[in-house]
Amino acid sequence: MKRINLPQVVLLCSCLVLVHHSGTCQPYLRLRPSPSDNLPVKEIIEHPDPEQDPKEQDMDERTLRKKLGSNFDPNFMAVVLPGVVNASSQDLLTRSKSLGTLPVDLKKMDLNEAPYGGRIRMGKKARRKFLQWLWAYTYCPVLYTWKDLGVRFWPRFIKEGHCFSEKSCSLPEGMFCKPVKSVTKTFLRWYCQGWSRQRFCTWIPVQYPIISECKCSC
């Protein structure tokens, strides 16, 4: 039988104590999801096992709100699924475009130079309409939808961002809207270790990346 030395026992006990009180022991923060530069976030694969799920007494909303504290962001998380209006991707894209403002680099673009204008001169009105069309064509909004993370997360629902990618966003075509920035939101994750009567379960804080900006790129 493999012997476990005293330092290993002390480290394990220390981690259990930290998780029980604050959920901040480093090994458990490596559980997915975790902050990542790789976007979009990969789907979380949960293995169905009722013994690994929180029980009714573990789901007291008042206790969980207190544990999550100021990290609870009602703009991006919800305990119950908010009312969702069915809309197509094109509807969402059109709605997002109406909120955008013309970027500075487009305002400063010289349309009288190739490849846009060449020898053709544009008046102010034509120039403004062309820039608005160009901005609408290349604009990459962040589209949000509510996602169910499952019973092992609290709050259970997250407003997840994704980039519109049903068509090219460049002229000539070839580039698509891709995520370039994200923000992290802290959720509670139900985590169990051990087995049978020796199983220890608790809520621990985890950070979930949410796409916050998309850009037209290769």
TrEMBL record:
Signal peptide positions on this chain: 1-25
Biased composition range(s): Basic and acidic residues: 43-60
Cellular component, GO annotation: extracellular space
GO process annotations (BP): cartilage development; dorsal/ventral pattern formation; negative regulation of BMP signaling pathway; negative regulation of cell differentiation; osteoblast differentiation
Annotated compartments: Secreted
Domain of life of the source: Eukaryota
Swiss-Prot/TrEMBL keywords: Chondrogenesis, Developmental protein, Differentiation, Disulfide bond, Secreted, Signal
Pfam families recorded: Noggin
Record carries keyword Disulfide bond: yes
Region (Disordered): 39-60
The protein's assembly and partners: Homodimer.
Protein name according to UniProt: Noggin
